[in-house]
Design goal:
globular, 28% strand, four-stranded antiparallel β-sheet, 80 residues, alpha+beta
Length: 80
């Protein structure tokens, strides 16, 4: 969340029903997450969703580094 706020590169949520939400892509988060076996760790990207009306944030993480912000958030919408 803090990286998305710092970068301040927000886009409209692709779901038109979520007009009050903005999304941002945060890349290469692996350095913020290390396990007991760092040689086996994988890189992470995240989609941060900011609900501007409620001022609440959600973060969706993926190991698929080729996915766009839109693809990440829409995949999670399918699961909801």
């Amino acid at each position: 969340m803090s990286i998305a706020k710092e970068q301040s590169y927000w886009r409209d949520h692709p779901n038109k029903k979520r007009k009050q939400q903005k999304i941002a892509l945060v890349k290469t988060l692996g350095c913020h997450w290390r396990s007991d076996a760092p040689e086996e760790d994988v890189e992470l990207n995240a989609c941060v969703v900011h609900d501007t009306k409620k001022d609440e944030y959600s973060v969706f993480v993926t190991t698929n580094l080729s996915r766009t912000t839109r693809q990440i958030v829409m995949t999670y919408e399918l699961k909801a």
